[in-house]
Design brief:
Shape: rod-shaped
Distance between the termini: 22 Å
Helix content: 40-55%
Number of strands: 10
Strand content: 5-15%
Largest sheet: 6 strands, mixed
């Protein structure tokens, strides 16, 4: 951290400059009462500040900054150098006795003379008359944060500390909120000063806020099964990031990368349980688990309304089901690239089918069958041979109502947008989703594994709550 550039933001309040009142009375006996608030016998910041600033050399031995000094001393030990100090003070269009601009000038001189570890000091003046209204101040600070050179300069510093002890609450809160938005993870801590003990100590409220904000972002993202971006969130634990990476790669069917991401999860129980589940999917000879995994992919893309990706995955699943259905009826020992050999042997016992295929000019001599051929075979088995359920074939026909939509989308051969209502009608209203589950042995009670993944991520978020 010492090699990085450090900045400190200080809001200046009406008690941040103090002078021995007896000395002040001695120096200006005639006008002394003009600079003192009779209600509490304290300095009036604007008038007294102007006088003290003009007579700084004479009064400097009697000036104290007791609320800011503990922060300067703390950082002197913590980070050694403060490369940039920004003092934020008020200088309202309608001058007020409480304006602290002259105090900021005094503090600037005081620090320059007494703290050699502070390299650059600038002052930002708040000129608005609405300094006590949080909504007005927030908007004001937000509007000038990038435009004002002294505020914008904060972007050049890696580590930023906040001292928001003095000053008006609306200003302090506005600075805090805008700093979170504009500077985010650069903020190392906010410093609190105990005036009784004269010490400063860091409070992590801002970092806790940022962590809570990131955690809430994670919750929103997993609700939509959007795992990839979680890795970019600064204040999320590594376990959450790695587990989200696992979910992302698993959804992409990149099981090896998913396994690698899981191997970095520190929570042993969560890591090992997920690895056992993933290894089962990877190592099983049967494609059944992969089909079930693909179904959950399809269903998630439907829920996300990511309809192009939905259509691509939907027909990938349908095509696999066609293969399974044909193999189930024919009992042929089909594996990848041996279709022509095993199917021709099958046709030797089915001359009627061979004749029908030839009459329809359906090509079946290839290493692997086309989905069109498989669909036509199922039509033959249900309509001519009667060995396939009409209800199942009708579901296939219904599913294929979306084929042209897929073909005309950017997921295939053209640029047309998918029709949400038609997709919903086929997939949900006509219960193709229910039929798909039945075909690949997913019970109605079975949970989406990604919902279980989301529950695990939620658990990990709670474990790392500060």
């Amino acid at each position: 951290m010492q090699n990085k550039k450090n900045a400190l933001i200080v809001t200046v309040g009406t008690r941040d400059v103090q002078v021995d009142l007896s000395i002040l009375k001695e120096k200006l006996p005639e006008k002394y009462q003009e600079y003192i608030n009779p209600k509490n016998n304290t300095l009036m910041a604007r008038k007294a500040g102007e006088f003290i600033n003009q007579n700084y050399d004479t009064l400097k031995k009697h000036i104290k900054i007791p609320i800011i000094e503990p922060t300067l001393k703390y950082l002197q030990h913590e980070i050694k150098n403060i490369d940039y100090l920004l003092l934020i003070a008020t200088d309202q269009e309608t001058p007020r006795d409480t304006d602290t601009y002259y105090y900021a000038e005094i503090i600037k001189k005081y620090i320059a003379q007494n703290y050699g570890n502070v390299s650059k000091i600038e002052i930002f003046k708040i000129t608005s008359d609405e300094v006590v209204y949080l909504d007005k101040m927030y908007k004001y600070i937000h509007g000038v944060f990038q435009k004002n050179k002294n505020l914008n300069m904060l972007n050049d510093y890696e580590n930023i500390y906040l001292h928001l002890v003095g000053g008006i609450d609306a200003i302090n809160t506005s600075i805090r909120f805008n700093a979170i938005q504009k500077l985010g993870t650069k903020i190392q801590s906010e410093l609190h000063v105990n005036e009784d003990t004269g010490t400063a100590s860091p409070i992590q409220s801002i970092r806790q806020f940022l962590q809570s904000n990131d955690n809430n972002t994670v919750r929103k993202m997993i609700k939509g099964y959007l795992y990839e971006g979680i890795n970019e969130l600064e204040f999320v634990s590594d376990d959450v990031k790695y587990f989200a990476q696992y979910a992302h790669y698993r959804m992409m069917f990149n099981f090896e990368k998913a396994r690698h991401a899981l191997s970095k999860v520190n929570n042993h129980n969560i890591r090992n349980n997920a690895l056992r589940e993933l290894n089962t999917i990877i190592e099983k000879e049967s494609s059944q688990l992969k089909l079930q995994e693909l179904f959950w992919n399809v269903d998630i893309k439907y829920r996300q309304k990511n309809y192009v990706d939905f259509l691509v995955r939907f027909f990938r699943l349908i095509e696999e089901i066609l293969v399974k259905e044909v193999v189930k009826i024919t009992q042929i020992e089909y594996t990848s690239n041996n279709w022509e050999k095993v199917f021709e042997n099958y046709l030797k016992t089915k001359p009627e089918l061979k004749k029908w295929l030839d009459e329809k000019d359906l090509r079946y001599k290839s290493k692997d069958p086309s989905s069109h051929l498989l669909k036509e075979l199922l039509f033959y088995f249900q309509s001519i041979e009667g060995s396939y359920l009409k209800e199942d074939y009708q579901c296939i026909e219904t599913a294929y109502c979306l084929q042209q939509m897929r073909n005309k989308s950017i997921g295939a051969h053209s640029f047309e947008a998918p029709d949400e209502e038609e997709i919903k009608s086929v997939y949900e209203t006509q219960e193709i989703v229910k039929w798909l589950k039945q075909k690949i042995n997913i019970s109605e009670e079975e949970k989406n594994p990604y919902d279980i993944i989301n529950q695990t991520i939620e658990k990990l978020l709670n474990e790392n709550r500060n």
